[in-house]
Structures are given as structure tokens and as C-alpha cells.
Amino acid sequence: MTDIIIIGAGPAGLTSAIYAQRAGMSVLLLEARAYGGQIINTPEIDNYPAMPHVSGFEFATKLYEQARSFGAEVKFEAAVSIEENNDIKLVKTSKNNVYEAKAVIIATGAKNRPMGLDREEELIGKGISYCATCDGMFYRKKDVAVFGGGNTAIEDALFLSQYCNKVYVIHRRDKFRGDAADVEKLKARENVEFVLNSTVTALIAEDKLSAVEVTDKISGEKKQIPVSGLFVAIGQMPDNGAFANAVELDENGYITANESCRTKTKGIFVAGDCRTKEVRQLTTAAADGAVAALAAAACRR
Questions:
Q1: Of 192, 142, 139, whose CA–CA distance to 170 is shortest?
Q2: Reported pTM
């Protein structure tokens, strides 16, 4: 029996682990993939207080090591369901294990949103990527495109512009949602071209990507842009389907909870990007982690 099971070892889940253990709770962290969540792919973090110019990998590693130093047990298993036996929560995993706890914190974050185009999944690794820092060097001295207008898209384009011959930034609007300072940096890069008020409507490929079809949202004009790689950064979506029987989800699949991080199910809490909220940033994920852990610890006592 563990006091608190935390599902997800991203910034929210790891922060929860730190706060829960400092509150005297035993903690089991379940992580389906690698610790750190999506922040691990960010080349440089500039907006986390007191930690400027740190890589996402370094940030995540320090957070992971801090949680482990307090005694958190970590198992790399995907949680596939949460069930209840009286007041005990039973968390089943992909390895057919069942773990028991008095409280559960869901901190599964979000995953990359696909474009929904024909052959998109087939071309992953053959020209389609969702992580510039992971795959960017495969396109050194080649022409590539980034699809999106938020911080991730801007960061991806800045990173790729250092290595690629040409970077097209395709955005559905004429204004960016990303940080203004980074947008200005991108505009100063001579090998970056903006394709605004446009969306990617088709992938041109035989065995690998050779071009993208782009449609102007105002005129309806279509054109093809020859590229070897397309980096997709059009937002995130939650992955909470496995817990639909245990907590309430909104129409978009996010777990319903306010700033208290309490769900409508007694003993289940939520932290980070997987919950209903207005702002999804590294700082808010950490804040959620602290709030959820303290609430779960109070529930456990």
C-alpha cells in the first residue's frame, strides 16, 4: 500500500512527488515513457523563474533526481485504468500489475496534436516529425517547414534555422501566439520565410516527404512548397481516455478540475496540462503539482 500514486513523471508529476514526500507521504510514480514529459525536448528554457538558459533535458533531470532523492519510487509502466475498492484506489498498468493507494494524482500532461491528413502517420520518420530537437539534425542543409504559431513552433523554427538551408514557418493566422521576443528573433533569421494565413492541406510523397500543399485561408489559393521535412507544432491534446470511468472529462477530453486540482471523484486529484485550465506553462504545471500533492496528503491523513 502506497500513500499516493502519481501517474506521469513530467514537471507536474515530479513536483507532486517532491511535495508529497516532504509532507511525509510515500509515493509511487508511474510513467509510460521517459521522465520529464514534453519539456525534455525544449532546447532552452528562458521563462522559468531563477533558471534562465537551462535546457529542458537538464531541467527535467534535476527535477527527477530531486524527487528520487526524497525517496520516490519510480516504475516505467503505463497506467491503463483506475478502479476503486472501498476507499482504496487500484491502479492497473500495461504490465498487468495492480498498485494500491489511498490517493491518486493524474499528471499525464498532453500529447502532440496531429494534422489529420492522409498519410500523416505513415510518413512519421520519413519527413514528418513532432520534435525538432529530436530529429532536426537529420535535415541539416535541407529545406524544411514548421507548421504552427505557438511557442513550440517558434522554438522549433529557431532551432532548425541554425542547421537547415531554409525554414518555412506556416501559420494559420497572421499573428503569432508565441512569445514576442522569440518571434522577433525568428524574423531576423535570413533563412526563414513566413507563410501566413495558410494551412497545410496535403502531404506530397512517394516513399518519403518531398513537398507540402499549402492553402491560403483568405484567397483559397493552393501551392506546393518543396521540403524534405515538416515539423508539426499545432498544439496539444490530452490522453485521458483510460481514466474516463474514474473522473469527469470535458468535451475536449481534459479532466474537469479547478485551481484546487481536486476532481469530482474523492481521492483522485489532477495536475498539469491534462486538466481544464486557461494557461498551460511550465510554471503552472509545477504550481499544480504542489497544490495537488498537498491536497492529496491532507486527504490521506
A1: 192
A2: 0.81
